Amino acid sequence: MTRALETAEAVDKPMTVLVTRVDDRTVEWRQCEKRIKEAGLSRLDSYIKARESIKRAIGTNAIPADSGYKEAVDEVMAAFRQ
């Protein structure tokens, strides 16, 4: 979060933040959302969820359906189409 705020100050242009490694059950997530709003930044509605590191079977590398990656990509692509 700190890097996003520092980048926003340095660039001094409108920007949208993609938040990653989110555990939306935590106080830390709510505080992060609050800091984004207070800084006047917008964020994608979707976010990338934190996940436990799990060894996958050999030959598999599927991204879990509820990871947030597809939603984030769809949202970014829709913004570029406007």
What layout of secondary structure does this protein have?
Elements: H1 2-11, E1 16-17, H2 27-38, E2 42-43, H3 69-81
Parallel strand pairs: 1-2
Structure in a nutshell:
With 82 residues, the chain is mainly alpha-helical. Helices cover 43% and strands 5% of the residues. It has three helices and two strands; from the N terminus they run αβαβα.
Characterization of the model:
With 82 residues, the protein is mainly α. The protein is globular and about 40 Å long. Helix content is 43%, strand content 5%. The chain has a two-stranded parallel ribbon.
* Helix content range: 40-55%
Strand content is under 5%
Number of strands: 2
Poorly predicted runs are: none
Question: What structural class do helix, strand and pairing data support?
Answer: mainly alpha
Rg measurement, Å = 15 Å
- The helix/strand series, from N terminus to C terminus, equals HEHEH
Strand order of the largest sheet: 1-2
Tell me, what's the shape?
A: globular
Q: Tell me about the biggest sheet?
A: 2 strands, parallel
Distance between the termini: 27 Å
The mean pLDDT is 82
Total of DSSP H or I helical runs spanning 4+ residues: 3
